[in-house]
Amino acid sequence: MAKRIGVIGGSGYTGVELLRILHSHPETEVVLTTADSNAGAMVGELYPSLQAAYPHLAFTSIEAADLDGLDLVFVALPHGASQAIMPGVLSSVPHVVDLGADFRLPPPLYKEWYGEEHTAPDLQGSFAFGLPEVFRSNIVSSAHVASPGCYPTVSSLALAPLLANGVVAPEGILVDAMSGVSGTGRSAKVTSLFSEVDGTIAAYGLLNHRHTAEIELVLSHVAGAPVSVLFTPHLVPMVRGIHATAHARPIQSGLSTEALLAMYREYYADEPFVVVTDAPPTTKACMGANTLHITVRYDARTDSVLALGVIDNLVKGASGQAIQNANILLGIPEATGLPITGLMP
């Protein structure tokens, strides 16, 4: 019998991506989705791309949503919104995957990086951090998951083998990343207008982007020691995709690019969604897929290590990874229903 699934916040980009991928999932059935501002509208009316997949599914309001009998709920709401509803959601369904930032960080880090008190601090410890390639055992033993952000996903996985094997210093790591405009969400804002983003690249969140905390959290766990990262994101004129370039200082001698590539391939040998490439990866290769493409280089001239990673910010960076986490929670083979081939051209 198919698992009964609800999607709270189904009208945003991550919500509609959940609906798109879940339709091809052989072991799930979406029976409910909410969108307060579009309550009553048919899913296919708002998103014609989903008309054939969901001809009879309509958005409902959160207040009117009946969660009883659901096996799992995805929460894909703007930052801060899931805190208010989560107590009720957790009391109604056995499993929750939250795509927002509300339950990713422990209370002290949350207040430090978000500048406000959490309204449901007693629930923050109920969620496993949903990066399966690093925290799979935690996810398996949990009932609920907080999926990480798009930047932390690609940045952390690009650097993890280096820190896990003690190849680079845990301090002074630089990550420069570029993201497509869909990462800013569907709500109208001047900074994401076509006339504002076309033909230009701009950095934002300088020195204090909130995803820094997640990157450091993951990498400190991997390294077994505190890791510090200077993270700088950029908005680029494309719809989907993230490209991250990480720079780190080696603390081992005798390094070579060939040896590092072999180390990466061994580290990710059992990970179905991680592709280690000889050539520099391109965002196009991951478009629409739940994959991460990475490569690594050692530069003898500057004695530096360079790691590069790309993902689709809406798939491995959000909805695809959320479904990957849901599969684990539900006891379904992890790769079930998830695309691994990118769109070309």
Automatic annotation (TrEMBL):
PROSITE patterns: ARGC. Keywords: Amino-acid biosynthesis, Arginine biosynthesis, NADP, Oxidoreductase. Pfam families: Semialdhyde_dh, Semialdhyde_dhC_1. Pathway: Amino-acid biosynthesis. GO terms for biological process: L-arginine biosynthetic process. Residues 4-142 form the Semialdehyde dehydrogenase NAD-binding domain. GO terms for molecular function: N-acetyl-gamma-glutamyl-phosphate reductase activity; NAD binding; NADP+ binding. InterPro entries: AGPR (IPR050085), AGPR_AS (IPR023013), AGPR_dimerisation_dom (IPR058924), AGPR_type-1 (IPR000706), NAD(P)-bd_dom_sf (IPR036291), Semialdehyde_DH_NAD-bd (IPR000534). SMART domains: Semialdhyde_dh. This is Unannotated protein. It comes from freshwater metagenome.
